[in-house]
Amino acid sequence: MVQPLLKYPDPNIRLISANVRFFNDELHTWITDMIDTMKAHELDALSAIFIGVQYSIIVLKEADIYTPYINARLIKHSGTSTKTERSIYYEGISVDVDRYESVTVVYEDENAEPHYRDLSGDLARIFQQQIDYCFGSTFVDRVDKEMKQRINDHLEHGLVAGGGSCPIIFYRDYFKRGAKYLISFTALTFVLPFFVSPTIREWVYRVDIYVLIAIPLLLLSYFLYAQYEAKVYKQCTSCQTGNIIGTTAILLFQYAIISLGVFLWVAPK
Q1: 49 three-state secondary structure
Q2: pLDDT tens-digit profile of 57-81?
Q3: Which among 31, 113, 156, 252 counts the fewest CB atoms within 10 Å?
Q4: CATH no. for 11-154
């Protein structure tokens, strides 16, 4: 059955789609409705959220074949390209968007059978557009701040806000950036013993000690705030817990190296 399409300014576009757990008759009905709706509107792809179904279902049309991608995830990508995109949600708006040129997708079919597939070119781009919708995002979340503001000013009700989209700025990055700056500053002091007097060397050492106290506080703040943002922006790949832990581990390793340098090299003899 042909279903009405979700359109601007309906805020449900920001809902994050849940994974399909039951591969039953209801699922088959949703897929049939999606295909019927695609045919009626001459669409090449559709996410289930557009017909009011908050589950991770995408249907792609290739030639005359409609293929459902259920619980799909990108596991590999390569290359990038910029092309103009349009949206059935934000009608009348087109923007240039960077996308991966090739992607590898893992997904399940309507019978719960797992598959993986390589997509490239326009098909890869279309798929990435649809998977954005599954995670509560749209193409306006992928443009720079200036373009986003222009789109916001153009729309009658402004951009549809919601916690589903990835923000342009993550506040946790301020803590990370501060820690990196302090690590770099401390590393630069390693050359000073060659050029300064013992008195200045002792003064530099004291400054380094204060910096070494500040760095772990920044890293702790980064880790804790990153956990908060990970809960708020679950769809953002940079918010995944593994990425946060990995970044923290790398910074802690760098901190350990410069700490050794301070105590073994910069410290007055």
Answers
A1: helix
A2: 999 999 999 999 999 999 889 999 9
A3: 156
A4: 3.90.45.10
